[in-house]
Amino acid sequence: MANDPIHQFHISKLVPLDINGVDLSFTNSSLFMVATVAVSSAFLIATTSGRGMVPGRLQSVSEICYEFTANMLRDAAGSEGMRFFPLVFSLFVFILVANLFGMFPYFFTVTSHIIVTAALAMLVFATVLIVGLLRHGFGFFKLFVPSGVPGFLMPLVIAIEVISFLTRPISHSVRLFANMLAGHITLKVFAGFIVSLSAMGAVGIAGSILPLVMTIALTALEFLVSFLQAYVFAMLTCMYINDALHPGGH
Amino acid sequence: MIFSRAWAASETDAGHGAGGADVFPPFDPTTFASQLLWLAISFGLFYLLTSRVILPRIGAILEVRRDRISQDLSEAQRLKEESDAAIAAYEHELAQASANAHKIGQEAREQAKREADAEREKTEAELAGRLEEAEKRIADIKAQAMAQVGEIASDTATAIVGELLGGRISKAEVTRAVADAGARKA
């Protein structure tokens, strides 16, 4: 069982809680969600509490996070999009910190569960849909009618656009979920090879160098993926928000 | 392969809940409600914290810094303009002072020239007066001499004529004749 690459995704109840037959227990997943929020908030609040005119290193980290996300959103959705800055910022930081938490051995990776990423993706999808319809009414559906398409192709193009819009939350959530899941499984499988091989005597120990190198390389890659997937999720959120604000202009 | 292992793992996992014991954990619907609830609580809290506390604070820090930088820049600009103005004023005053000095020099020169001219004119006038006086005196002396010349001439002529004619001519006649001769000559 120590070698089982799926074991790390198991959810175990820490504080059982059952309301009307619905299991709402505080689990290891819940623990890491709370820890993610607690650590991110504590870091962001503590490092900026000095309000230094000249920022120290840690304050710079918070400021860079702020400006990085703000620029991302402003570039994608314009200054109007800045109303959604808290949403994009909290999504980016939450996913980034949750992903990085997953890099600690024995830690649970919150974002390796489809229901979590799907919930975040649906939050974005619902925001886009509601804001788009409230701001533009039926004009929001211009999103599905690209300009400069010949008339006979129009039904086909509209169908494609509608399908691609409706599948957005799926691709949005599965991308993050699958990356985290696959990365952690691969890491675990290669790390497991080291253990199994080194149990096979001298030859095995020599042979286990290869998966060891692989595991080290994959660990580095996984850190990159952790950041990249958080960035991609936030970036797509920015682009979808842009669609809600300017449905005709793409 | 992963799924078959997952099945196997789940089946042997005694600690797992009864509901989804034989499912790949991320696809186990019995955990969905709990995950959604705690995600909503934790992410909702995080959203509130970022939108109410963290982002306004960092935004304020950055804005204060931006304001301060632009304020410092404008202050530097103002100081530069002030020093430029001071330099311009200094140069203006220097030019004025040099012009003043020039004017004063010019005036002094003119004054001196005027005084010298006046002095010279006075001296010249005095000299001219004295010259005139001298000339007048010379003319007087000359006229007196000329008058005496006539008298001498007539005396001489009377003496000569008297010698020649034996004193038979009056002195008045001789004087008249001499004056006539003088007038004819003139």
Can you summarize this structure?
By secondary structure, chain A is mainly alpha-helical. Chain A is built from 8 helices and 4 strands; from the N terminus they run E-E-E-E-H-H-H-H-H-H-H-H. Chain A has one domain.
How much of the sequence lies in strands of chain A comes to under 5%
**Radius of gyration from the alpha-carbon trace of chain B, in angstroms:** 69 Å
Quaternary state of this entry equals heterodimer
Helix tally of chain A equals 8
Protein structure class of chain A: mainly alpha
Largest sheet features of chain B? none
Largest sheet of chain A: 2 strands, antiparallel
Count up the helices of chain B.
3
- What fraction, in percent, of the residue positions of chain A are helical? 55-70%
Domains of chain A, number: 1
- Extended strand count of chain A: 4
Ranges of chain B where pLDDT stays below 50 over 5 or more residues in a row are 1-20
The proportion of residues forming helix of chain B, as a percent range, comes to over 70%
| Spatial strand arrangement across the major sheet of chain A | 1-4
Q: Kindly provide the radius of gyration of chain A, computed on alpha-carbon positions and rounded to a whole number of angstroms.
A: 22 Å
Describe it.
- The complex is a heterodimer of chains A (250) and B (186).
- Chain A has 250 residues and is mainly alpha-helical.
- Chain A has one domain.
- In chain A, 68% of the residues lie in helices and 4% in strands.
- Chain A contains eight helices and four strands, in the order E-E-E-E-H-H-H-H-H-H-H-H.
- Chain A has helices at 28-48, 57-77, 85-101, 114-136, 154-166, 168-198, 201-207, 209-245; strands at 13-15, 18-19, 22-23, 26-27.
- Chain A is globular, with a radius of gyration of 22 Å.
- Mean pLDDT of chain B is 84; it is low at 1-20.
- Chain B contains three helices and no strands.
- Chain B has 186 residues and is mostly helical.
- In chain B, helix 2 (32-165) packs antiparallel against helix 3 (171-185).
- The interface between A and B is large, with 55 and 48 residues.
